[in-house]
Design goal:
By secondary structure, the protein is α/β, with parallel strands linked by helices. The protein folds into 2 domains: 1-38; 56-179, Glutaredoxin (3-Layer(aba) Sandwich). It has helices at residues 3-38, 56-62, 81-89, 108-117, 129-136, 163-171; strands at residues 70-75, 100-104, 122-126, 144-149, 152-157. It is elongated, with a radius of gyration of 23 Å.
Length: 181
């Protein structure tokens, strides 16, 4: 092979490598965008407790504050950025007078970052109790919320898209249309 042929072969190989990298980066970007856009429409039929389920016995040990009349429980993961963002926005919305607790499972240092921005009105529950309660209630999707009356589930919101959505849910006594139920 001549020098020109070797140079042309090397140039084609480099060009193919550059094009391969560009294609991989495009596919990665499309996947990231699809994931972000696809978060809200995903419906997890069996996520969270069923309406009418009585958790009074279980909560009497872990979260007795939620047994007195109407109350709310939030699930905010310590490693979830939308959960942290939502927690920091809760100081800006009108919270109901009912007791509110927040399950914050995850690493203690990350849980501290979420708990530190929660309003004083919200009682934080950390691991291991947070994980145990979330599992017992089949709550996986974060951020999410459940409303109780005397320990019985009366409404749930499977995915909280914004602080405004949460505010509307917390102030309603019936199941929210955004709850996916």
């Amino acid at each position: 092979m001549t020098t020109v042929q070797v140079s042309a072969l090397i140039a084609v190989a480099i060009w193919m490598a550059v094009l391969s990298i560009v294609v991989l980066l495009c596919v990665r970007q499309i996947a990231l965008i699809s994931t972000q856009l696809g978060q809200h429409p995903v419906i997890m039929e069996n996520d969270g407790p069923e309406i009418g389920t009585d958790f009074a016995q279980m909560m009497s040990n872990e979260v007795p504050v939620l047994l007195n009349g109407e109350s709310h429980l939030l699930l905010l993961s310590a490693s979830c950025k939308p959960c942290h963002d939502l927690a920091s926005m809760l100081n800006r919305i009108q919270l109901p007078a009912h007791p509110i607790a927040a399950l914050v499972p995850g690493r203690p240092d990350l849980a501290d970052l979420v708990v530190d921005v929660l309003p004083a009105q919200i009682t934080p529950i950390r691991d291991p109790d947070a994980t145990d309660l979330a599992r017992a209630m089949s709550m996986q999707r974060v951020p999410s919320a459940v409303t109780f009356d005397q320990g019985v589930v009366t409404a749930k919101m499977d995915h909280i898209a914004s602080a405004g959505d949460l505010e509307a849910f917390l102030h309603s006594r019936s199941t929210s249309p955004a709850s996916g139920i």
